[in-house]
Amino acid sequence: MGSIQEIFDKTKSENRAALIAYLPAGFPSFEGSIAIMKEMANSGVDIIEIGVPYSDPLMDGPTIQAAVDIALEHKTGIKEVMETVSEVSKTGVAVLTMSYWSPIEKWGISKYAKQLNQAGGIGVITPDLPPDESEAWISESDANNLDRIFVVAPSSTEERLKIVTDKVTGFVYAASIMGVTGTRSEVSNKAEELVKRVRKHTNLPIAVGLGVSTVEQAQEVAKFADGVIIGSAFVKKILESNDLPETLLIISQMCRDFARAVRR
Amino acid sequence: MTTFLQDLNKIGVETGHFGQFGGRFVPEALISALDQLETEYLKAAADPKFNDEFQNLLKDYVGRPNPLTEAKNFSQYAGGARVFLKREDLNHTGSHKINNVLGQALLTVRMGKKRIIAETGAGQHGVATATAAALFGLECIIYMGEEDTVRQSLNVARMKLLGATVVPVTTGTKTLKDAINEAMRDWVTNVETTHYLLGTVAGPHPFPTIGRNFHSIIGVEARQQILEKIGKLPTAITACVGGGSNAIGLFHPFINDKEVQIHGYEAAGDGIETGRHAATLSGGSVGILHGTRSYVLQDENGQTLPSHSISAGLDYPGVGPEHAWLKDSGRAKYHPITDSEAMEAFSLLSRTEGIIPAIETAHAIAGTMKLGKELGKDATIVVNCSGRGDKDVETAAKWFNITI
Predict the structure, then answer these.
(1) The domain spanning residue A165 has which CATH number?
(2) What angle, rounded to 10 degrees, do the helices at A78-89 and A30-41 form?
(3) What is the Cα–Cα distance from B388 to B91, expressed in whole angstroms?
(4) Taking CB atoms and an 8 Å cutoff, what residues of chain B touch A134?
(5) Where do the H-state alpha helices sit in B120-175?
(6) DSSP assignment, residue A163?
(7) Whole-angstrom Cα distance, residue B22 to residue B45?
(8) How much is the pLDDT for A195?
(9) Which residues of chain A have pLDDT under 70?
(10) Which residue has the higher pLDDT, B70 or B6?
(11) Strand, helix or coil at B332?
């Protein structure tokens, strides 16, 4: 498995955007989440974001909240997240975790970084940790070879974009809309504008997430972004599905469709 | 020349931190709105016109200064100590909440925003916010845990009468914590048009400092009133602490008066040892909740634990960061009060003084009874009578087996 930079170099040479999939650990079950993520890895997904379940996910809409509630009912803690990272990264796919800051800080910033590195994870997305509060995280992520991915939003001023891009490594996560996670009928034109603004501040790859859920939306985003992040669309299908074999078939097909869509 | 707001102690105003506590742990999408709020507050605080407007509203609309009432009959239950009640219960809308709400509503108008959203637990902050929205012609959405809409149904009706939309929150524990989550989700979606009128001194910077400063009028008045009445500062000041807004309003102007003891009383529910409580400072640990670092009820994975209290307004697993800092520095002491201790005090104050306190406030009254017994009859205690108990009549009637 290569670094995030190598993955984006590769996708660029193949004239496509990277396909990034999100799924919370422990959803729909501990084993189920591992099986689904392995299926994703074999179906054209370049990077998997493993969500750390959190009791107060205030950036998430009803779909991901429902998934996280199920994961928490299954007592999915950091220990289970690390086991999931370890299993999924064995496939060779790049694995990141996406976590609200409370679980990481409580677990111990240094302990979390070390364990994630040992489990084979290569980076962390922190949706509610602004760079301003991340002094300890910057030194621990550096010390443990983890990329630290911060999120920018359409409301970010030029000054904020500079602050964030100065501290980010790996890629920049651009939230396509103002709001919480969830499927939406169309991608707002704010996404392209934001990507253009971020490019003025950094040469790092930029991936767009939040509200990207259909093949058409993925196609559209892949034209201007280096990576396309899909989350709620997968979670929704898994919530609707009856059993694991059926889920695996559906997710596999979705991933293949998205993988085709991100080719330019 | 400085203004009223600028004359206040400036702890936390510039950096947003109180030692290791406070800060901003929020999505980047909200940072520019928090920056805008901070900038607007600092401009307003320096603007004599804003200060006049705020103070005129407090005087002519809220009815400030409210009295400092000596509870002479109640004193025998507090070890004979002299007990003075700072009568926030006499404010328009029935609690201290209106102070901060009017301040932030004025800021909303200054920022050119037309829509306010708020969370509420007991409904007091929701009622105060709906009131200010009516006064200033703003659209108003109140998020309230479904469980709280049941135990505080009277306040739900009041908010609706004032023209607000009340949204019952059915996620998570269906109480204040989840109402804040929903309000945050609304805010991150509608931040350009909307001000989140956060009702306590928790949350990301600058909420803890602006909320405190707007409530500091409580302590400023109380300090002056007690000096007029007894010619010296009190032995101790006390208040109930959930998120901590009424307490910080009373405490803050006394922080540099080292001879004055400061005591906060948290909701211990069925007792801290049962795990069914909301005593964050007494039974929690340092962590992150709702955008700030403070004491939190949480497990080793950083998951917030459900809180429990008979009082909806104290039923919150977090607490304002300045209280966390006051606790760790030793300047203030925080103690747990159980549901039954609070209800006994509720009854005693009602029967001895003819003042029915809010159940939240009853926790401070119960704490004052204990403290008075420790300090003895030579002591003077100023307790923040933060709200009136009309909203709690149903809960209290049930507790005392009174048929309605």
Answers:
(1) 3.20.20.70
(2) 30
(3) 9
(4) none
(5) 124-136, 146-151, 153-161
(6) H
(7) 21
(8) 97
(9) 1, 187
(10) B70
(11) strand
* Continuous segment of H or E residues that includes residue B387: none
Q: Across B56-186, where does the E strand assignment appear?
A: 68-70, 82-87, 115-120, 139-145, 165-169
Measure the CA–CA gap between A116 and A89, rounded to whole angstroms: 11
Report the pLDDT averaged over residues B46-50: 97
CA gyration radius for chain A? 17
Average pLDDT over residues B212-232: 98
Q: What angle do CA B58, B62, B68 make, to 5 degrees?
A: 90
Token digits of residue B301: 């994975």
**Which two structure tokens, joined as six digits, stand for B3?**
């203004």
Rounded to whole angstroms, the Cα distance separating A77 from B327 reads 30
pLDDT at A179: 85
Token representation of residue A164? 């964030």
Report H helices in chain A. Answer: 4-13, 30-41, 62-73, 78-89, 101-107, 109-119, 135-143, 158-167, 190-199, 215-222, 232-240, 244-261
Q: How high is the pLDDT of residue A184?
A: 77
Interface test with A, best of B180, B301, B305 (most A CBs within 10 A): B301
Whether B123 and B168 have beta carbons less than 8 Å apart is answered as no
ipTM for this prediction = 0.95
User: Quick one: tokens of B302?
Assistant: 């950083």
* Residue B115: pLDDT over 60: yes
Cis peptide before A131 (omega within 30 of 0): no
Task: Write down the pLDDT at residue B9.
Answer: 81
Contact of B171 with chain A, judged by CB distance below 8 Å, is answered with yes
Residue A1 has what pLDDT? 54
- Gap between the Cα atoms of B93 and A172, Å rounded: 47
| Contact predicate B219/B227, CB 8 Å | no
d(CA B183, CA B181): 6
What is the residue-averaged pLDDT of chain B?
A: 96
pTM: 0.96
CA geometry: angle A228, A229, A234, nearest 5 deg: 125
Residues in A touching B169 (Cβ below 8 Å)? none
Which residues of B are catalytic, by number?
97, 119, 386
What is the reported pLDDT for B326?
98
- Out of A106, A164, A179, the one facing B302 most closely (by C-beta) is A106
Residue in B20, B24, B31, B194 to test binding to A, most A beta-carbons within 10 Å = B31
User: Is B291 near chain A, with CB under 8 Å?
Assistant: yes
- B292-296 and B17-18: which strand pairing? unpaired
**Which residues form the domain of A167?**
4-261
Question: What tokens appear for B26 in the block?
Answer: 């929020």
Cβ pair A107:B184 closer than 8 A:
no
Note whether A175 and A196 are within 8 A (CB): no
Tally of structural domains, chain A: 1
Specify the 3-state DSSP secondary structure of A214. Answer: coil
State the residue for tokens 């928090």.
B34
pLDDT at B2: 83
Across the A/B interface, how many CB contacts are shorter than 8 Å? 117
**Cβ–Cβ under 8 Å, residues A150 and B28:** yes
How far apart CA A151 and CA A130 sit, in angstroms, is 8
**Looking at the DSSP assignment, which residues form a beta bridge with residue B341?**
none
**B280-304 pLDDT tens trace:** 999 999 999 999 999 999 999 999 9
Provide the mean pLDDT of chain A. Answer: 96
Of the partner residues B23, B189, B290, the one whose CB lies closest to the CB of residue A133:
B23
The reply to whether residue B304 touches residue A160, judged by beta carbons under 8 angstroms, is no
Percent residues over pLDDT 90 in chain B:
91
Residue B185 Cα distances to A179, A233, B327, B370, angstroms: 7, 19, 31, 41
Whether B125 shows a pLDDT value over 90: the answer reads yes
Q: What is the pLDDT of residue A216?
A: 95
